[in-house]
Known about the structure:
heterodimer, A: 241 residues, Rossmann fold, six-stranded mixed sheet, four-stranded antiparallel sheet, 9 helices, B: 79% helix, binds adenosine-5'-diphosphate, binds magnesium ion
Amino acid sequence: xxxIETNNLTKKxxxxxxxxxxxxxxxxxxxxxxxxxxGAGKTTTIKMLSTLIYPSSGVAKILGNDIIEDxxxxxxxxxxSPQETAIAPNLSVKENLEFMAGVYEVKNKEEKINELVxxxxxxxxxxxxxxxxxxxxxxxxxxxxxxxxxxxxxxLDEPTLGLDVxxxxxxxxxxxxxxxxxxxxxxxxxxxxxxxxxxxxGIMSKGNIMExxxxxxxxxxxxxxxxxxxxxxIATGGEVE
Amino acid sequence: xxxxxxxxxxxxxxxxxxxxxxxxxxxPLFLLFIFQQIKIPNEAYNIENFTPGIVVFSFSFITLFTxxxxxxxxxxxxLIRLSVSPMKAVxxxxxxxxxxxxxxxxxxxxxYILAIILGLKFTISVVFAIxxxxxxxxxxxxxxxxxxxxxxxxASSGISSIVVQFVCFTSGMYFSADMLGETFAKVCKxxxxxxxxxxxxxxxxxxxxxxxxxxxxxxxxxxxxxLVLSSIMFKKKMTSDNK
Lengths: 241, 243
Ligand SMILES: Nc1ncnc2c1ncn2[C@@H]1O[C@H](COP(=O)(O)OP(=O)(O)O)[C@@H](O)[C@H]1O
Ligand SMILES: [Mg+2]
């Protein structure tokens, strides 16, 4: 079964088309990167796929479940790390994890929390209030929280936006650990992030998916020397060489 | 229980930002004290009559800070996370209500302690009055959720202040509504605040002449309407905020 399948998925805001009839097929266990500049429609795509907003038209299925009809069921099997860090500011790191474990009614709560603390090395900040943490730690916590319900599908919206090089590399390591175990859809506008983490990349521009493939395929197809050039060529439709 | 889990989180948020509770407790306490010092020749200010008024007055501050809590939550990206989760609108509303009840209880206990110091006779009716007050407070929490769902955090505090003023004028706590004319008195009877005061007054004094069946029915209808409206609005705004 496909993890995600979309058919002409579209989102319009008044006369502005944020996502323009996209067709995607993402396999289970795949790490798929949506790469595109600001305003390309990545976040809007993720919001539709994660039940946050309704599409204007088109169909999408998550592990065979329709995103509109089977909303409630889908909510149990996916999770999102939103573009803006999403944590409860006045709660400690531990309390944040406990709170979200409660929201998902996680059975083996303590065990799960310990696992995530270990994985994201959150031990040293465990009793600190979330709002007092640095951006890097907050992002780590936000991503850790999104794993609390053992999602089969995880959306990471610009997970390393605004992080310094070291924090970014650390997060990459964590994402690599998850790779293959669950399906991950990651959005980014950093080429090297898409290149080093993903199995396949979908290049988005102005609401359209321009090309989908492995980075090698995309380089070959566009006839560029490297991935960055390939991206520019594809995203601009060949107007910028 | 997702509701309790959410209530626990709200409660922590509230007590870790305690300025608003201090206000909701200190100001009514101060008023209760002051008005008992100056002897006003008006029955409304007898401790037996004035204490229930102060309780209802203090609830209007609960509206204020519930509205601000909800409005703040709405703008935080935490709500994106919660909107993706399987939590339902009812669970949010109940979660908010339950988290505020301990504060209501604290308010009430402090008011009655002061009232007793100031000469109110302690009877078992006072304990019953506290229980009834908790039920009465639900409409004020629901109004807060409603206001917080519609307006921004800043606007919420302004709108809620109107509720505070409204309670002052229409609850009969400072003066009997008759003083502003027949029409005004009639209107007050069909608003929830005077009935709220009457209900608590009746229970506290164990004297059911203070309240009419009509009062009770009016009050229950308003409570139900507020609960339903706040649920609908909260849910509606939650999806449209994410757009
Ligand atoms: N709520 C909204 N109302 C109107 N336009 C929106 C809204 N959300 C997003 N857009 C527009 O849709 C386009 C795609 O936005 P977005 O999906 O956030 O892009 P990305 O995540 O790739 O940067 C942008 O032009 C943005 O301005
Ligand atoms: Mg985005």
